[in-house]
């Protein structure tokens, strides 16, 4: 591997995690081409060819001030880019069609590069959905909360009777709820009183779990088998239910990871073909770690910022091929 | 019951893009990422809008 083979960094411009990784690569002399898919096709030019024989796309990705040959790319860091933006002169519905063409072309030509990835977006997608995550986590030996997904109020009530304890309800799928008033809403985890279960459950699927008693929570960031565990201790009831809802009610630290949990998360990532994962765990007062979710493109810049854990360096090691 | 979403932001005042270094810098030229970063899953691209929808969790279930 020659020293000047570039790393592609695909992310939005205002992304501190991408900045951290690029900074590390710069210091190591590894060339970088960083782009946001939203730059395509207006400010990013792709010319990729595939021969009749010999597998692999070849060609140029040109971002104006710098360009790369696809066949030279060393690795790709793919982190929540935007979607292609079509010139305003193109009216709908043609603009939407053109955006889908641009999206599919750029993403899938780059995703076909046989290089190191954090993470290939196709692997991310398969790993993104909570119902499958729960199955995978349990199969990998991790403890998970008792859960029900249902639109049947009787089944929800029966689940509550089986749990015989506090319940929470959380979205099956992330994203925002745009009520048309102000900012789109983030739907957080919230306590669910079994007495409040009614026929409104029939309106859509609901994801209900036993409320896991928490000593604290852990954001466990894993990069190529290296584990970086950030403890999150809530000082308010809101933060205890969902730490994302009360940023002022949190303290951060580092914590060792039990070997059984470390083995479980490594099996989990391997099963999805992922190099990176941002796991959320609750740690019970008895010290048991309970898996909630794993975001394959989760945020981690704040973890390094609060704890000093060398997560960016671990990314750079993998992308550079140092290990 | 819906509440306004918490939006945790990291300041980007005075931050500009450094094309040569391929990262964001503060007015004195130091990398912006060396500033304290808010513990946020609600403003992942730090644009202060809290409307990030490119998270794979948002991928359509189909």
UniProtKB/TrEMBL annotation, chain A:
One of its GO terms (cellular component) is cytoplasm. One of its GO terms (biological process) is SOS response. GO terms for molecular function: ATP binding; metal ion binding; ribosomal S6-glutamic acid ligase activity. Keywords: ATP-binding, Nucleotide-binding. Residues 134-320 form the ATP-grasp domain. This is ATP-grasp ribosomal peptide maturase, SAV_5884 family.
TrEMBL record, chain B:
Residues 18-62 are annotated as: Disordered. This is Uncharacterized protein. It comes from Actinacidiphila guanduensis.
């Amino acid at each position: 591997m020659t020293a000047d083979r570039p790393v592609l960094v695909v992310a939005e411009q205002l992304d501190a995690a991408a900045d951290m990784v690029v900074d590390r690569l710069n210091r190591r002399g590894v060339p970088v081409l960083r782009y946001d898919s939203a730059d395509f096709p207006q400010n990013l030019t792709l010319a990729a060819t595939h021969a009749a024989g010999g597998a692999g796309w070849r060609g140029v990705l040109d971002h104006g001030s710098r360009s790369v040959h696809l066949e030279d790319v060393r690795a790709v860091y793919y982190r929540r880019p935007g979607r292609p933006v079509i010139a305003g002169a193109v009216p709908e519905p043609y603009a939407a069609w053109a955006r889908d063409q641009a999206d599919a072309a750029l993403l899938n030509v780059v995703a076909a590069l046989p290089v190191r990835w954090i993470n290939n977006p196709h692997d991310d997608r398969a790993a993104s959905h909570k119902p499958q995550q729960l199955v995978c986590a349990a199969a990998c030996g991790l403890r998970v909360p008792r859960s029900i997904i249902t639109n049947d109020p009787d089944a929800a009530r029966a689940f509550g009777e089986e749990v015989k304890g506090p319940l929470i309800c959380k979205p099956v799928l992330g994203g925002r709820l745009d009520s048309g008033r102000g900012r789109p809403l983030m739907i957080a985890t919230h306590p669910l009183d079994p007495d409040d279960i009614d026929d409104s459950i029939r309106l859509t699927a609901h994801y209900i779990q036993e409320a896991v008693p928490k000593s604290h929570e852990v954001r466990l960031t894993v990069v190529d088998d290296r584990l970086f565990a950030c403890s999150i201790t809530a000082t308010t009831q809101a933060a205890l239910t969902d730490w994302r809802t009360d940023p002022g009610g949190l303290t951060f630290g580092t914590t060792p990871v039990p070997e059984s949990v470390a083995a479980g998360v490594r099996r989990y990532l391997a099963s999805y073909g992922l190099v990176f994962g941002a796991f959320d765990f609750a740690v019970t007062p008895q010290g048991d770690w309970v898996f909630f979710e794993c975001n394959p493109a989760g945020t981690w810049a704040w973890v390094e910022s609060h704890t000093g854990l060398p997560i960016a360096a671990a990314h750079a090691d993998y992308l550079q091929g140092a290990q | 019951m819906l509440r306004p979403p918490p939006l945790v932001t990291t300041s980007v005042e005075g931050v500009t893009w450094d094309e040569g270094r391929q990262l964001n810098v503060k007015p004195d030229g130091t990398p912006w990422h060396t500033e304290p970063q808010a513990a946020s899953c609600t403003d992942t691209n730090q644009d202060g809008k809290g409307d990030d929808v490119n998270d794979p969790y948002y991928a359509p279930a189909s």
